[in-house]
């Protein structure tokens, strides 16, 4: 077959899309078309901050129905989403309770409880996962403690993309890359850790065997009854994004830049050394090997500021921010106060005031504070990654929506003193499509896919300025970040 029609459903924490990819084998060309874009807005239900799964499913089905109505014969469908969150089902496959978002406060204090009960080093050695207060392990503990009426009815627990697999096919699946984000998977055995699940107070039988990306879950049927394979791609969106990062050398790091900035390197083996634990790196599954990375709060801060101030012209805001003085005010982006504040503007202003820094009041000043702080945090993580490798990193790839921000890309190059290659923008979608192409036998392997991605993507190089202002502010940021590192993993050793 010379052409394939492939659907990539890419759900982010703020929006989702149904994308059609057309693959020409002879020219190795991938053409993307956005079929449907929709908001992914959290809703308040029963006192919890939740995902509106019904609205998301309706939008997904509407996109598939549109393609069917256009007469496009589909070869396969794949879904990727954020990690950590799950959906509970009863024995009949009906939803139990709500799909509570990781930004909800119900897990407050439970990470500390886990560390006290299980030991920080032991937890890290078993899972290799970064200590974040919203990890699935703590969500399950919250379920046990706070929603026993929900728990009593549960027979199955599915991650978000596997839930939509189930809704489209009627088949249950547990895809590996997303399962690794939970802090419930044993990094040695690759299976669910029964001891950790027992501490959380939930039944290990809720979870099936994790499968590597590329397996065929089942079929979605068109209005005419035609079956279309649904393939479990690398369903964690970062895993898909990294799969589509055109890495050329082993000494390259990457940032998947969006609502979160995920910064890391690829390794065939996990890194669970004491140094990795102290630096709080996570080891998540990839299409090949592991993604050793750190979660950085990312453009969530800017998204919230723009929402609160009703800013819609992002390009104009970035241009205005470029004219602001560099590093006038700095924050530590990973401070817990920025996870889901009532007002992001006030959270940033209060953080600056507490450190006796100039308080940013204008949108441009707020944006510049965010960009400078992210660039310095990127540098901090880069140095930690370099120490873990024991060898220098020489190139940095930025992919995803954030790669369209030329100011942040340049600031990152300046702060890290590395050339930055920005693009592709559609990394998660391309990785999703690429995994399907491999599963369909159209592309041989990951290396061949990355060659295809290079052929089909534009990248922009940002060269570091040697007279960067960041060198003068590195020590200041380090001093600033230390008292701001108040997430519980920094307090509980």
Report on this model:
The protein is an alpha/beta fold and 493 residues long. It has 19 helices and 20 strands. Strands 16-17-15-14-18-19-20 form a 7-stranded mixed sheet, with helices on both faces. Strands 3-2-1-6-13-12 form a 6-stranded mixed sheet, sandwiched between helices. A 3-stranded antiparallel sheet has the order 8-7-9. The longest helix is centred in the last third of the chain and has 27 residues.
Overall form: globular
Number of helices: 19
Beta-strand content estimate? 15-25%
Q: Which structural class fits the helix and strand makeup? A: alpha/beta
Q: Give the proportion of residues in helices.
A: 25-40%
Based on DSSP secondary structure assignment, what is the total number of beta strands?
20
| CA-CA gap between termini | 57 Å
**Low confidence ranges:** 486-493
Strand order in the largest sheet? 16-17-15-14-18-19-20
**Oligomer kind:** single chain
Radius of gyration: 22 Å
Largest sheet: 7 strands, mixed
Average of the residue pLDDT scores:
94
Can you summarize this structure?
This protein has 493 residues and is α/β, with parallel strands linked by helices.
Using brief descriptors, characterize the structure shown.
493 residues, alpha/beta, seven-stranded mixed beta sheet, six-stranded mixed beta sheet, 21% strand, globular
Write the layout of secondary structure elements.
Layout: E1 3-11, E2 15-24, E3 29-39, E4 43-45, E5 48-50, H1 53-69, E6 76-80, E7 86-89, E8 95-96, H2 110-118, H3 120-127, H4 136-146, H5 148-151, E9 156-159, H6 160-169, E10 174-175, H7 176-179, H8 194-200, E11 210-211, E12 215-221, E13 227-232, H9 237-243, E14 252-257, E15 261-267, H10 274-278, E16 282-285, E17 290-296, H11 300-309, H12 314-322, H13 344-354, H14 363-389, E18 395-399, H15 406-416, E19 420-422, H16 427-439, H17 446-456, E20 460-462, H18 470-484, H19 488-491
Parallel strand pairs: 1-6, 6-13, 10-11, 14-18, 18-19
Antiparallel strand pairs: 1-2, 2-3, 4-5, 7-8, 7-9, 12-13, 14-15, 15-17, 16-17, 19-20
């Amino acid at each position: 077959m010379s052409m394939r029609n492939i659907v990539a459903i890419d759900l982010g924490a703020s929006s989702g899309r149904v994308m059609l990819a057309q693959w020409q084998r002879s020219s190795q060309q991938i053409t993307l078309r956005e079929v449907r874009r929709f908001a992914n807005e959290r809703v308040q239900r029963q006192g919890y901050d939740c995902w509106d799964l019904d609205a998301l499913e309706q939008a997904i089905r509407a996109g598939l129905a549109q393609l069917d109505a256009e007469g496009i014969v589909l070869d396969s469908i794949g879904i990727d989403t954020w990690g950590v969150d799950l959906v509970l089902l009863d024995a009949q496959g009906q939803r139990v309770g709500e799909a509570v978002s990781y930004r909800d406060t119900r897990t407050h204090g439970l990470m500390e409880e886990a560390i006290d009960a299980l030991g920080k080093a032991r937890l890290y050695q078993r899972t290799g996962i970064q200590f974040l207060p919203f990890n699935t392990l703590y969500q399950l503990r919250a379920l046990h403690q706070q929603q026993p009426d929900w728990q009593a009815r549960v027979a199955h627990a599915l991650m978000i993309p596997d839930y939509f697999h189930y809704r489209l096919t009627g088949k249950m699946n547990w895809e590996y890359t997303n399962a690794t984000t939970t802090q419930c998977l044993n990094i040695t055995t690759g299976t669910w850790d029964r001891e950790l699940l027992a501490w959380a107070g939930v039944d290990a039988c809720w979870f099936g065997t994790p499968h590597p990306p590329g397996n065929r879950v089942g079929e979605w049927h068109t209005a005419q009854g035609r079956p279309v394979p649904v393939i479990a791609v690398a369903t964690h969106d970062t895993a898909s994004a990294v799969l589509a990062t055109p890495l050329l050398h082993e000494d390259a790091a990457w940032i998947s830049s969006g609502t979160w900035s995920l910064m890391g390197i690829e390794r065939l083996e996990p890194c669970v050394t004491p140094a990795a634990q102290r630096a709080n790196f996570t080891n998540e599954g990839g299409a090949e090997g592991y993604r050793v990375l750190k979660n950085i709060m990312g453009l969530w801060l800017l998204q919230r500021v723009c929402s609160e101030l009703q800013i819609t012209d992002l390009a104009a805001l970035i241009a205005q921010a470029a004219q602001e003085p560099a590093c006038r005010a700095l924050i530590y982006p990973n401070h817990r106060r920025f996870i889901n504040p009532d007002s992001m503007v006030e959270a940033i202003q209060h953080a600056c005031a507490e450190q006796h820094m100039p308080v940013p009041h204008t949108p441009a000043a707020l944006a510049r504070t965010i960009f400078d702080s992210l660039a310095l945090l990127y540098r901090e993580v880069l140095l930690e990654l370099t120490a873990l490798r024991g060898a220098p990193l020489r190139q940095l790839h930025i992919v995803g929506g954030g790669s369209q921000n030329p100011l942040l890309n340049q600031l990152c190059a300046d702060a890290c003193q590395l050339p930055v290659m920005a693009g592709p923008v559609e990394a998660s979608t391309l990785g999703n499509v690429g995994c399907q192409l491999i599963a369909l036998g159209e592309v041989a392997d990951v290396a061949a896919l990355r060659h295809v991605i290079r052929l089909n993507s534009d990248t922009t190089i940002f060269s570091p300025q040697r007279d960067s202002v960041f060198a003068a502010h590195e020590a200041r940021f380090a001093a600033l970040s230390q008292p701001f590192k108040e997430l519980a993993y920094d307090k509980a050793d």
